[in-house]
Amino acid sequence: MLRRCSAVVGKVVTLLALFTAPAMANHIDSATVSVSCTSYTITLKASLLNPGQRYTIDFSIILTPSSGPAITVLGSTSFVANTSGVFSGTLTNPLGPLSGSFTLSGTATLTGLTGVPITFLPNDSLGCPVTPPPCSTPTSNVSNFNGTPINSGSFIWFNANFTASGIPSTGATIFFQSSTIHFTTSTQTFTLPVPNAQITFSPTATCASTSFDTLTNTWMTTIPVNGCDEIFLTGLAFPVPGNFGGKVNGNVTWDGSFSSDVSGVSVHWKWGAAVYSTFTTDYNALQVKPSHCATCAGFNNGDHAGTPEGVDTSTGQPFEKYVIGGARGGGGSNFTGSWSGTVSVSPLCKT
User: Fold this and answer.
1) Looking at residue 19, what is its pLDDT?
2) How many Å is the maximal CA-CA distance in the chain?
3) Beta strand 343-345 with 266-276: parallel, antiparallel or unpaired?
4) 71-80/266-276 β-pairing
5) Average pLDDT for residues 273-298, to the nearest whole number?
6) What is the pTM of this model?
7) Residue 164: how many CA atoms within 13 Å on its side-chain side?
């Protein structure tokens, strides 16, 4: 009987010890971020970790401008918990440069657990100077659409290309900013903001390339100094809304301003527009052909500059398969739409 009581008491003591011993809770304590117009610094703290175990903290920072789409910055850091089961670390990354006013929000999450809101220092707002080029040359290119009705749910791929003269052997950078497209349908008037463009003529580049910088809303293109007969300028994927009205009435006007970091440069630009039944606004997924001459980096074809060479992830089919008639295109193999007239801008201001 005494042995049985002792055994019961032993089990109770063991259970009490289990309930009272500190349990590892894998806890993220805080995340604080200091944001500037060119970088951000995040400080993360976590505790009650298993010593020696590797963890990952994922974080997202959302910058909501006073107008336009929000910018989302995603990041993560991996670490091994120390012998005390705690972690504290600071990470600094480049950002932007940003222009305008933003409201800040975000979360940080220890993998698999509920996240904590990010605390922004000194507060959750950010103001960055708006710094347009010291001088720029405005330009306007007017054309029209064909009469094919454009159905809601489709996309219009507006794309522009150019040639340049006066590029020195040392290279140059051309900027296209403050760009908008204006047109009217039977139901309303549209003014569409177009992403900025930065084209670098590099003396060391052997192949043209294009990517989209989501932080600055800018198409970034690099081209050899000798250029090409068509160089991608900028593009806009416009999802056609339900109240579009089918047809565009009258002119379609594409405006913008050019500038350059060297003097004596002239630009000659034109644009097209094609309709796609399936498309994407993820511009890097489009894999836009950077120039008509680009036969390297996987572009071994005769497609025009601005052709979306990417593949739709949901169907596994190239976007080219989904081009249909409308805007300035007739479908088939007309992936950019027919070109407008060419407008020349010269001279460009030196920034």
Assistant:
1) 35
2) 106
3) antiparallel
4) unpaired
5) 93
6) 0.66
7) 31
